[in-house]
């Protein structure tokens, strides 16, 4: 017995020793770790972006993270400012009296990151490649007579007919801005991703530190010559005041919150609304909305198959829905969403809420029932696709499904991951054979604030965006918009498109929401912008 | 023995071939379109089709398979459809964090769990045994992300002993590596300690009832020698099996822990690739993982001969 007690005593001794050893080791290790924290270098901004950067070609994709990457390392000829006005960025311009010839002149001192001067030939190649990918660019190139480099600094763009919105389209910041790349890079196929990432923007991409989907590092471009004047959205002086910007991906939102509160990172581009109370407790972090325009959430129907090939049934579905119900479930916090029936976004020059009364005032289930009856709805199932892996898209289908059922629709909501949804929505098969009837998605307001760029307003049937409406009337209205040569005339056509959209139900606008950002209080002078830009920002020691 | 090893290594070829064919077909039959991820939400069907063509995804299945096998025979795994980066480079960047975390986790687990299991068996049906078993049940039962968050709250946010997240390679300094690795390793080790301690206890209980243990004790052999030399060595075969399997599972990727602690390991690489239908990366990862499983199983089998000389191949 005594021997066992002695052994036990020895064991306790070992355990105590081991525990002390572990604690000593932990203290040693933590000391070593804290002495050289990876994320606390001076003049480096460590930012957690909304998504990992995987595609590096900002022309081939409309992904926001790649566009943001584009603004880091590339520059643009023209850029829209916070008043929605196109401003000179890399180039100034003149327009001929007949509005058919645009002459752009590159400003002095423009250099690519490899040291070569930016030339007009680079700009022509870049615009040409962009014009094959971007919907607005395609419209311009449809009426382009010629686009050529007159000399090293002069680009001459000649049109067959006037396109008053040319500068707005070339200067737009979403979804695909015409970033200027070296001619050798931009002369490749628009359907194959580029493999060389040399821009003339304010930051240099550090290829050797790039880990797809994990982290990307940008260094200040020492030879960048900012424009004179204050920065305003994508326009103005892009003055870089830090040495390095590092984007890191954190798949877990709570981890990012913990990291900014402990000072390991400086910035979170998008904070989940339900995690805001945690950040509210921190005195070192500011939560704010940087982008006043925010996002619009929408529903899109399939025009090819019953029941939504019937206009009255589409109207009934729209009538059954309530923006407040959708937004309340999706966002929850009324500070971050607003009921808005304008298809071009509230607060934008073309925004108008005509015809959206039912949507914005809680829906009309009885009216929807009546319309369904008039339309002779036969109970054909509505295949509603519900993505389960995208937080910002999980609520809309659930709310809509119940609203549609209340109105008398037979709803078949099918859960799937987003990848399956984007594949399936491209299928024109019957809903029962792998097709679909209804899905939801979100757009940044600057992506849909004009009939020239909003993909849902394309009425070219099989050539249109998923859902494939064949709508000659909307195409005629878009042509009218292109021809409108004053803001007043443009607004007039935009209102007509607004009313037409809600009558034909090309898509259902379900309101707008904002996504707050969080920044360390060490970061100051962050300009408001729909694109999270990193110029102008100062970081305190 | 050498012949056995050669036979086992050769057996990898048909296993990997079957895995390769199975994975290739399974992925192509799963709904999903990498072109849609590349092009984004605004792309028209025509634009998607052109991207598919440029990626070779419009080619007939057998052409795609032959192309891929051709790459494999040259020792290449292809290029990511999404990031346009060689798969070997992507795996090379991501395997080391996972490997290092796995090694540290297993070392910690064995150092803690084996003595715990031995102690529990030795003090069978006492409070020590019950405490070890209670810990074991807890270790199994609490989800790994809960343990992770609790550790972060306690040691990173409250005590500020360690960073909240991130990974540093040992080449950046061993202290820095440990500072960032210790919490994820302890988190993972909670489960493995529970598993290994339970297995050690069960195995030891069986062995401690054997005649030769009674004989050793009767001869006056020191109890520690009885426990650790006579009993533990004979109980080691199932323990080694569980350690080896655990290591293989860790190498296969621990996506939840990697996410909670923001470790850029292969678990996240695999999940991201699956969500984006990045076929070459998924195929490369599954081939790598199956190859590792075969290799680790071989090492486990060979280790039996060390612990139990009666085992011969």
TrEMBL record, chain A:
One of its GO terms (cellular component) is outer membrane-bounded periplasmic space. One of its GO terms (biological process) is peptide transport. The keyword Signal applies. Keywords: Signal. Residues 1-40 form the signal peptide. The keyword Signal applies. It is found in: Periplasm. Belongs to the bacterial solute-binding protein 5 family. This is ABC transporter substrate-binding protein.
From TrEMBL, chain B:
PANTHER family: DIPEPTIDE TRANSPORT SYSTEM PERMEASE PROTEIN DPPB-RELATED, PEPTIDE ABC TRANSPORTER PERMEASE PROTEIN. Keywords: Cell membrane, Membrane, Transmembrane, Transmembrane helix, Transport. This is ABC transporter permease. GO terms for biological process: transmembrane transport. It is found in: Cell membrane. The chain crosses the membrane at residues 9-27, 99-122, 134-157, 177-197, 237-261, 281-307. The keyword Repeat does not apply. InterPro entries: BPD_transp_1_N, MetI-like, MetI-like_sf. It comes from Nitratireductor pacificus pht-3B.
């Amino acid at each position: 017995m005594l021997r066992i007690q002695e052994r036990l005593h020895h064991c306790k001794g070992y355990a105590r020793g081991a525990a002390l050893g572990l604690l000593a080791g932990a203290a040693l290790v933590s000391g070593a770790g804290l002495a050289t924290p990876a994320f606390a270098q001076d003049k480096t901004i460590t930012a957690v972006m909304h998504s990992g950067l995987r595609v590096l070609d900002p022309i081939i994709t409309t992904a926001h993270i790649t566009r943001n990457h584009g603004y880091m390392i590339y520059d643009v000829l023209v850029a829209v400012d916070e008043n929605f006005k196109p401003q000179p960025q890399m180039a100034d311009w003149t327009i001929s009296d007949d509005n058919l010839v645009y002459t752009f002149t590159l400003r002095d001192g423009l250099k690519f990151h490899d040291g070569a001067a930016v030339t007009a030939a680079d700009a022509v190649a870049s615009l040409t490649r962009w014009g094959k990918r971007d919907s607005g660019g395609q419209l311009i190139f449809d009426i382009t007579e010629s686009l050529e480099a007159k000399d090293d600094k002069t680009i001459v763009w000649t049109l067959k007919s006037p396109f008053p919105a040319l500068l707005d389209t070339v200067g737009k910041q979403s979804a695909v801005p015409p970033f200027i790349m070296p001619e050798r890079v931009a002369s490749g196929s628009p359907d194959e991703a580029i493999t060389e990432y040399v821009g003339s923007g304010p930051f240099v991409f550090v290829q050797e530190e790039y880990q797809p989907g994990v982290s990307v590092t940008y260094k200040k471009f020492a030879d960048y010559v900012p424009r004179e004047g204050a920065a305003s959205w994508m326009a103005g002086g892009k003055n870089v005041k830090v040495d390095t910007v590092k984007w890191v991906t954190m798949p877990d939102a709570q981890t990012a919150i913990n990291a900014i509160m402990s000072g390991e990172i400086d910035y979170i581009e998008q904070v989940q609304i339900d995690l805001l109370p945690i950040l509210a407790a921190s005195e070192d972090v500011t939560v704010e909305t940087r982008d006043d325009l925010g996002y619009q959430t929408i529903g899109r129907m399939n025009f090819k198959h019953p029941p939504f090939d019937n206009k009255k049934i589409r109207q009934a579905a729209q009538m059954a829905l309530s923006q407040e119900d959708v937004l309340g479930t999706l966002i929850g916090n009324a500070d971050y969403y607003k009921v808005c029936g304008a298809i071009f976004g509230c607060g934008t020059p073309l925004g108008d809420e005509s015809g959206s009364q039912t949507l914005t005032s809680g829906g009309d289930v009885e009216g929807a029932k009546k319309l369904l009856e008039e339309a002779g709805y036969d109970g054909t199932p509505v295949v509603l696709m519900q993505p389960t892996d995208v937080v910002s898209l999980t609520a809309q289908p659930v709310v809509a499904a119940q609203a549609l059922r209340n109105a008398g629709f037979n709803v078949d909501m099918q859960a799937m991951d987003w990848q399956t949804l984007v594949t399936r929505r491209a299928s024109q098969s019957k809903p029962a054979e792998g097709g679909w009837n209804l899905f939801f998605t979100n757009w940044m307001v600057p992506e849909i604030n004009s009939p020239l760029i909003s993909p849902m307003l394309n009425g070219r049937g099989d050539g249109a965006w998923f859902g494939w409406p064949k709508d000659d009337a909307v195409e005629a209205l878009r042509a009218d918009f292109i021809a409108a040569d004053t803001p007043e005339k443009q607004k007039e056509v935009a209102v007509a498109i607004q009313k037409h959209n809600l009558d034909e139900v090309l898509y259902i606008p379900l309101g707008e929401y904002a996504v707050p950002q969080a920044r360390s209080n060490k970061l100051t002078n962050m300009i408001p912008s729909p694109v999270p830009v990193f110029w102008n920002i100062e970081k305190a020691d | 023995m050498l012949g056995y090893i050669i036979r086992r290594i050769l057996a990898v070829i048909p296993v990997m071939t079957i895995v390769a064919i199975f994975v290739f077909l399974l992925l192509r039959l799963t709904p999903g379109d990498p072109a849609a991820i590349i092009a984004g939400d605004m792309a028209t069907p025509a634009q998607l089709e052109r991207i598919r063509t440029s990626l070779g995804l419009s080619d007939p299945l057998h052409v795609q398979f032959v192309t891929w096998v051709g790459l494999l025979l040259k020792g290449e795994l292809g290029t990511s459809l999404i990031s346009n980066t060689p798969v070997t480079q992507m795996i090379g960047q991501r395997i080391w964090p996972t490997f290092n975390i796995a090694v540290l986790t297993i070392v910690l687990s064995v150092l803690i769990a084996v003595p715990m299991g031995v102690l529990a068996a030795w003090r069978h049906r006492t409070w020590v045994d019950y405490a070890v078993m209670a810990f074991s049940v807890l270790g199994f039962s609490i989800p790994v992300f809960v343990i992770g968050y609790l550790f972060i709250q306690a040691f990173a946010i409250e005590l500020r002993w360690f960073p909240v997240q991130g990974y540093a390679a040992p080449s950046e300094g061993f202290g820095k590596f440990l500072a960032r690795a210790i919490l994820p390793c302890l988190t993972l080790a909670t489960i493995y300690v529970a598993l290994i301690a339970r297995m050690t206890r069960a195995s030891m209980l069986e062995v401690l009832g054997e005649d030769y243990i009674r004989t050793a004790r009767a001869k006056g052999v020191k109890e520690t020698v009885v426990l650790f030399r006579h009993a533990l060595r004979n109980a080691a075969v199932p323990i080694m099996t569980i350690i080896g399997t655990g290591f293989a599972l860790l190498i296969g990727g621990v996506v939840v822990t990697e996410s909670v602690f923001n470790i850029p390991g292969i678990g996240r690489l695999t999940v991201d690739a699956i969500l984006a239908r990045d076929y070459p990366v998924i195929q490369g990862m599954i081939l790598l993982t199956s190859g590792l499983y075969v290799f680790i199983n071989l090492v486990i089998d060979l280790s039996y001969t060390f612990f139990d000389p009666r085992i011969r191949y």
